Amino acid sequence: KERNEYIPNFISKKPFYITDDLDTSGADYLEHQRLQKQEQDSKWYDRGKKKGPAATKFRKGACENCGAMTHKKKDCLARPRKQGAKWTGKDIQADEIVQDVQLGFDAKRDRWNGYDASEYNNVVEEYNALEELKKQ
């Protein structure tokens, strides 16, 4: 057991009124108050990436709005169409990559997860090219 200096000594030792017949599992009854282990490091994952090419026709069980197999119509993030892919069969979207990622509180909300700093040079070059066109 790791010591948590914020738990007083009289609490950290099992109180006299906790009998052994109630505590059959032998688990630490103050585990929720002890210092928790650090969760695993955040992994980079392919957020918003697509799996291969899109289907050519609507498939049974796919999203009625965009035609992807990885979600249903109520979970679709694409703009709602007047007539969905189910009825028109046009502009069917590719399936998204779905990964089971175990991330901590901060890692889940990390805006810069997966950002590659080396791509920034491309952004600067594109911006400079636009500036040159504006000057001309």
UniProtKB/TrEMBL annotation:
Keyword tags: mRNA processing, mRNA splicing, Nucleus, Spliceosome
A Pfam family it matches: Slu7
InterPro entries: Slu7_dom, Splicing_factor_SLU7
Domain Pre-mRNA-splicing factor SLU7 residues, every copy: 103-136
Location (main, coarse): nucleus
UniProt key word Nucleus: yes
Compartments, as annotated in UniProt: Nucleus
Superkingdom per UniProt: Eukaryota
Protein's UniProt keywords contain Nucleotide-binding: no
Assembly behavior: Associated with the spliceosome.
Protein task: Involved in pre-mRNA splicing.
Stated family: Belongs to the SLU7 family.
Protein name in the entry: Pre-mRNA-splicing factor SLU7
Organism, scientific name: Cryomyces antarcticus
Gene expressing this chain: SLU7_3
